[in-house]
Batch of 3 targets.
Target 1
Amino acid sequence: MTRSPHLVEWHPASWQSKPAAQQPTYADKAVLDGVVAELSRLPPIVVSWEIEALKEHIAAAQRGERFVLQGGDCAESFDDCESDKIAKKLKILLQMSLVLLHGLKKPIVRVGRMAGQYAKPRSADTETRDGVTLPCYRGANVNRPGFTAVEREPDPQLLLRGYERAGLTINFVRALVDGGFADLHHPEYWDLDFVRHSPLKAAYEKIVHSISDALDFFEATSRRPIHEMNRVEFYTSHEGLHLHYEQAQTRFIERQQRWYNLSTHMPWIGMRTAALDGAHVEFFRGIANPLGIKVGPSMSAEWVQGLLATINPNNEPGRIVLIHRMGAKEIDKRLPPLIQAVRATGSPVLWMCDPMHGNTETSSSGLKTRRFDNIVNELESSFRIHREMGTWLGGVHFELTGEDVTECTGGARGLTDADLARAYKSQVDPRLNYEQALELAMRIAGLHPP
Ligand code: PEP
Ligand code: MN
């Protein structure tokens, strides 16, 4: 296979010579430049050795030795940066990971869509309401959701506000995790109230008890605590969409002699910005982080091969996570040829299923929603197809929240279109609520016997 030639030497701003999709147009470039300069001086959100640790875990997951759970909001909002909401999101991810650990009998790598998921790709640059056309809402790092010209004007200062909230979020998550909040000996610390009133209560408690018993047994027989269980590792991710923001937090680390994007552990490239000759691919080929790449129904064999050759020319383990999001209807047709195309490159990849983005539809009342059954169907098909093709599906990617929202239909409580209006809070894509998220983890644990 030919490697694509790179005429431009890579540096953190080399993407600027390529077409950059999904970027806001700022009225005053000098203000933006000032903000980027300030962000470049501020301390990083994460550090390179954490990124390298995650890369090792992903390499292990590529070999079938671990399983990755990635989840969080479609977009974080600045208003949601509060202790209760962050703790609840962490709790649901921990609970899901416990269920997965129990079902899959493999260490679970936890990656939150958190601490920086503030920029969104949109299908149109503008939005029209009642004959008025304004720039679309591109996420809290860019502009404001209200439908007035002032609120929709891209504001570079928001990048600093987003950086600060990312810092506040990760600071709180680190403190909780380090303080024993996530200790597997004490899952009651991260109990969510709802479990007590949920149809899933008995099944969840059975899993918790069985893990506690297993821990007690191992500790009693080995006469020492299992240290790995005292503390879990937790990583962050967001879509690496806003390239000025990503560039500003990208630093050369002497110790590793490589460039790292220190705004998050694992950025990903969305479907809409994965053009081979585009600015995003140019930016991401130069950093050492593990990188997610979303692959949807329009991804061709040549395209995915070109992406792997450009972004991972040395076939580095742990570097690439291919997040397929085909939709329950398309997956049987689309996934097998993609697996074959990737196999032909020899590049190690972690296969991950995002059963959310290919299954979005509009409810009878006009709200964006997703049906729980379609999500489960896409997951079931993914596990089956990978098994048939001899590849390991080593991760899942969900949009979820630790709260009791009504954005997706179905699940144990059988939410219908009529329930959606009750607690529909997302500004963007519909999320699984805590109960639907936990149920999904249980379905996976059952689906994928070790
Ligand atoms: C997302 O993950 O929120 C998203 C926009 O995904 P995709 O690029 O797969 O459509
Ligand atoms: Mn989304």
Note: The first helix runs from residue 29 to 41.
Target 2
Amino acid sequence: MTPILEIEDLTVSFDGFNALNHLSFQMQAGELRVIIGPNGAGKTTFLDVITGKVKPTQGRVLFKGRNLRRYSEDQIARMGIGRKFQTPRVYLNLTVRENLELAAARHKGVFATLFQPLSREERDRLHTLIDTIGLRPKANFPAGLLSHGEKQWLEIGMLVAQSPDLLLVDEPVAGLTDEETHLTGELLVALAESHSIIVIEHDMEFVRQIARTVTVLHEGSVLCEGSIETVQNDPRVIEVYLGA
Ligand code: ADP
């Protein structure tokens, strides 16, 4: 089976410095993959290159077998790669439901956002999504009244509303309470039943909650990959990351 994401010998240089250095990576559809690594390991650049924000200096990124090199960031998003940044970007004056409706419409293009109402089926899907992200009691609240954790879930919902095949989620639990962190883990595990997901995260307890396979980046390459137990007990990982 063709992997959903395949990265071959990827190097990204900034002024001669290799932020990514001959990195290879593979992921099958339906995987929930966690990426960890010390500051400067190349995690952000890794996401930037998958979304097309940064182009490879060398090597290839294949999404469902298609080389992404020729495509713009917008085209790549439309091909089915969605990214959630660390800071929530929701519309504070719109309600939870309106934020989700706007995200779903925007995915269909500017014209649709302005002129085409959502279909019955699309509305039903958003209705279910509001339950999935745990915001049913606040569906008609302006997003500005949500807690930081709830805004994170809303933004994850807005991403899902755009029907991506691959979700890239950057540090989703930074600044959340323990309870919100746990609920975020449950949400990502639930979404992983129908999406492929890459999560970048530092919080090791959270990583233990959600991870099936962990990839450790170090100095722009994959240092080690495997189950959470394998990674935690690898002396190289302990030296560069966990022991720090
Ligand atoms: P991480 O997200 O793991 O902290 P980054 O991908 O942000 O790592 O950065 C990897 C390395 O590449 C760092 O040493 C960083 O300073 C460098 N880097 C990232 N982006 C740029 C850039 N636009 N120009 C120069 N150096 C960069």
Note: The mean pLDDT is 92.
Target 3
Amino acid sequence: MKPPDRVAFCYTVSMKRYAISLLGLLLSLSLLTACDAGFRLNGTSQMTVEINTAFVDPLTSDPDAIVSGDVDITQTGTYTLTYTSTVNGKTKTLERLVEVVDTTAPVITLNGESHQATCAISRYVEDGFRAIDNGDGDVSALVTVVRESSRILYRVSDRSGNQVEVERTFDLTDNQAPILTLNGPDHIEMPKGGRYFEYGVTVNDDCTDPAKLSVKTIGNVNTKTLGEYQITYQVQDDSGHTAQRTRTILVVDKPVTTVYLTFDDGPHTNTRDVLDILKQYNAKATFFVVRRATKYNSYVTRAYNEGHTVALHSNTHNYWDIYASEEAYFEDLFLVQDYVYELTGHRSWILRFPGGSSNTVSDFNPGIMTYLTQEVQRRGFHYFDWSVSTGDGNSANPPQSIINRAIKYIKVGKSNVVLLHDGAGHNETVEALPAILDYLMSINAVLLPITMDTPQSHHHVQN
Ligand code: ZN
């Protein structure tokens, strides 16, 4: 048997019960409506769904209803779904509003630790971050970064105005000890009876200005007694962190080659090149300078600051003037002493006579060198000639000849003062220097700058 029509059935029942009264008529109409809703929405007629999340349509009570309309879950907006049901030739439609919303803020992910320790935020190097939004995708480029005194804030909003803020916090404490670096070698072999040269250390600290840190040097080297000695360097920063380095010095019973490289007649651009090379080899030397054009002054200051000895040669280097009289010589000497003092802040008492103490160019003033060599010492100066001439004073000599002479005349196991030139016209010296230094390293020579403690090396005076 065919089932009765749903709507017709409802109508019949209601008519039987409430056919007569007006109230009954009204009630029957309302029941009729309820019965019409036999085709009804599952779920609510207004739904909200978060952008880029799955939307499942709950459909209607009629599984055969036709659905039209579409919900784009990738775009915010209001979408209408229409359901059409046809029963016994009668068509009914229902609507549902679906709103795709964006209520979720982006997510910021910090690279590196979100809590850091440093003595100042300004020293922190950003580790980076990423911001991903459920609607907008990668919004890293839109993140604003604000550095405050003890934290960094990262903020970003998506197109829907959802904002997020994360922070990287900082422990503003000094957690790092100073860094001590030994100047010169950490192992030194030196001959019994030799003179220990203190290369010192360089100190760096992340929080305290290194210039304000004083390094304590502990220990000493007794070069009269064979054995192993240690010099310990200690430093403490403002936060109480300490650092320590040790240098070992072996006083041995075998001869060590000591070399004092000396450069005359600068400053010049050659001085700059010589300084660059010496730096590569961590070698210290002595510059006997002449007052030159002021554009070269900075090389004198640099030589001093890099631990070389800046000593006195001449103000004019004009033999006829300076050896004309004792007065003329000392006037010239004091002028170059002032020049060095102006550029280094250090008054030097170490000199080399122009032409050396053995020069004969001063013969026009008989006995002047005999007098001056005594008088400079009486006045507190130390003067240095040389034991090795590389021949570089003659610019006709090619670099290889300078190298060969250096290797031939430097005496292994002895103390050597080597004459070189860094003034104008001595490019060959610059070219020869790396090979000379390579050789000196190969024989384990100790390269030292001349100081007031260095044994003086004097020629035989000839005038
Ligand atoms: Zn000279």
Note: The pocket of zinc ion is lined by residues 264-265, 313, 317, 354 (CB under 6 Å).
